[in-house]
Amino acid sequence: MERLQALGRGTQLMFVASVLLLIISFLNWQEVEFDLGPLGEGSAGVSAWDNFLGIVMGILTIVLIARIVARMAAVDVPIPVSFAMTSVVLGLIIAICAILKNLTDDYSTFWSYIGVGLAVLIAIGAWLEVQDAGGVDSLKAEAGSYGSATTGPASPPPPPPAAAAPAAAAPVTTEASLAGQESHESAASEASAVSPEASDTASDTTDAASDASSDEPSTEREH
């Protein structure tokens, strides 16, 4: 009890109302009376767990009680949302389910109206808890941070296709090198064809020079 009193007034209201709602949910929320004639009168009823709305309301009430008990025991629950966010979501859904169930069911009893009142008190306690946690702005900030963490950072844009230019220019370079090689080979072949003629001319020049040198001594001797 001391740990419950140490919590906020919103949490205290949620805990008391949710425990009472869980107990009342097992009582007759709808009941029909009938006459059996000689056997007398009778009645038949169902609890709040007879349809989908009642089941959802009961399960979420149990979850809310467990969440509050874990907080009183200082147990760290590994969920990505705060206690205020959990309380307001569960409190609103519980209240909506209880109201819709009472409106759609027939032969509602006194206990069903008490259950709706307790569900509304749970929602009020959740709202008080939100106010103690910083108000609606804190919930918006928490929801925004959770959404950005889920989506993750934006992927960087792909790099521009600048690397494709050298690949396209590679065949041109190869063709240019082949053309240069062919021109070099043709020049070498022409040079080799001209070389014999040059060698013959050089040999003729050498023979003429040798004949001239041989004629000069004979001339001097004649004088």
Describe the structure.
- The protein is mainly alpha-helical.
- The protein has a domain at 2-34 and 41-141.
- It is 73% helix and 5% strand.
- It is built from seven helices and two strands, in the order ααββααααα.
- The protein has a two-stranded antiparallel ribbon.
- Helix 2 packs antiparallel against helix 5 (110-132) and helix 4 (83-104) packs antiparallel against helix 5 (110-132).
- The longest helix has 59 residues, at 164-222.
- The radius of gyration is 52 Å and the shape is elongated.
- The N and C termini lie far apart (156 Å).
- Residues 164-174, 194-199 and 216-223 have low confidence and may be disordered.
Q: Keywords, please?
A:
223 residues, mainly alpha, 7 helices, 73% helix, elongated, disordered C terminus
Set down the secondary structure blueprint.
Elements: H1 2-6, H2 9-24, E1 30-35, E2 41-46, H3 52-72, H4 83-104, H5 110-132, H6 136-151, H7 164-222
Antiparallel strand pairs: 1-2
Helix pairs in contact: 2-3, 2-5, 3-4, 4-5
